[in-house]
């Protein structure tokens, strides 16, 4: 490759420089992040049409990150190509076809089965796209935190509540930023340098969650973000970002992948804490 980097390194650089991109280039960046596993198959005209920009904008984007042109950048994603990803698009097309072809409304069972299939697809994609380094970093943040603050609004509020419920089964001091009575400011202002905030937010990214993340950064606390993109506004000050692409059916996004990821983090933290307890007990067994 012309600049000697990997696809992962390119995506990391795009994420770091995302806020400084023009509006058009931001749209292209998001598209590339969401379609990196099939980008090698796509034509520049198709990407331009999907992003509602001119093909020249795609070329400018590639050159912005050190490539001679789109083809040069596209080749970088050859190793990331995953044919199984096509199942996502074909599934969505099948759902739309089913809806369009129905002469009678779908039954409750058919609707349920379709939505559960979308949830299964989202979980499969999450399993395939997990970043081991990011998972390890997230567990390390949870382990070292003196206090853990958790925030998620609207659709993500039930997940934030569950995270607090789960973490309260450990010895960690856990605080749910519920905003009850409009008291987001009061609930977050005590966060400090040795604390951790877990911010859970998906597009369009809740204003309240973004505010809490800014306060955490200003107070030098660590920030663990669970979101749909490493280019979300929350990622700017994050210590670690975990991305989740939820399955969608009938224009409704599930929450199964996000809550499964949160449960997995809790289990990994609990395992880490128990290992430390066992090591301490084993060491004490040799004391007089």
Automatic annotation (TrEMBL):
Entries under CDD domains matching the protein: SIS_RpiR
Any Pfam family: HTH_6
Claim: Transcription is one of the keywords in the record: yes
InterPro entries recorded: Homeodomain-like_sf, HTH_RpiR, RpiR-like, RpiR-like_SIS, SIS_dom, SIS_dom_sf, WH-like_DNA-bd_sf
Domain SIS: 138-280
Start and end residues of each HTH rpiR-type domain: 8-84
Record key words, sorted: DNA-binding, Glycolysis, Transcription, Transcription regulation
Protein name per the record: MurR/RpiR family transcriptional regulator
